[in-house]
Design brief:
236 residues; Arc Repressor Mutant, subunit A; Four Helix Bundle (Hemerythrin (Met), subunit A); 2 domains; 3-stranded antiparallel sheet; 11 helices; disordered N terminus
Length: 236
């Protein structure tokens, strides 16, 4: 009686490696979508992405299904996958979620009595963002991503919230990238974030929260103009 063999996938790739490849494919495609490297309506071909990432098609397929659940990819029957269009409703929902979670993180700065010297790296990242703006708005956006990563990290137990926001407010983050293509908005953001750090240093929680809401208002005020300027990015 012949001995049954496991499938080729399981012979050649341990479960852990399959999971690593699935997560790597997901994170890579997610970042390309959030950064607008993959613009709305771009076709997401499984074979092309698999070759680009150096994995089989299975991790890419699984990543695209996850992105579909997060409303960042559309997979119509028999047409393949595409980057989803931006939705004004999802942008506003994401904005609401960003406000609630980020304000809760800012409150933790005062509950945990974070010392002023621990805020110095945040000021350093803002100076870096200002320098990166001279290189281009895309460089600036990446620097501001680092700023918020640290902002959520300092209270000690909020890093997972940053990841949750990335998964739950993808359209908001993409819209923010669009808005940051405007250097004048970037400079306004820098000014407000300096004021935010100053409020944290002075332990003025009410002012810190007010300033963050002003940061969000910059995007909300520009949303109609962004929809008009980038009609191919938004669903009708």
């Amino acid at each position: 009686m012949s001995k049954l063999l496991p499938s080729a996938a399981y012979r050649t790739e341990p479960i852990e490696e399959q999971n690593d490849q699935r997560q790597m494919a997901y994170q890579s495609i997610l970042q390309s979508i959030l950064s607008l490297e993959y613009a709305p309506a771009k076709k997401l071909g499984e074979q092309e992405l698999a070759e680009l990432l150096g994995v089989s098609r299975t991790p890419v397929h699984d990543a695209l299904l996850k992105l579909q659940r997060e409303r960042l990819a559309d997979i119509p029957p028999r047409r393949g996958a595409f980057v989803s269009f931006l939705s004004e409703e999802r942008i506003r929902n994401g904005m609401w979620l960003q406000e609630k979670i980020t304000l809760s993180v800012l409150h933790r700065y005062f509950m945990d009595h974070i010392e002023k010297k621990r805020l110095l790296p945040l000021s350093g990242l803002l100076r870096q963002a200002e320098k990166r703006l001279e290189e281009g708005t895309e460089c600036y956006s990446s620097a501001m991503d680092s700023f918020y990563e640290l902002l959520f990290q300092l209270p000690g137990c909020c890093q997972h919230l940053r990841q949750s926001l990335r998964y739950a407010s993808g359209d908001f983050l993409r819209c923010l990238r669009l808005a940051q293509r405007e250097p004048s908005l970037c400079r306004l953001q820098l000014t407000l974030h300096r004021c935010l750090i100053s409020a944290l240093e002075q332990r003025n929680g009410e002012e810190a929260c007010r300033i963050y809401c002003a940061v969000l208002s910059l995007l909300e005020e520009r949303l109609p103009a962004l929809i008009k300027c980038y009609p191919d990015y938004f669903c009708s």
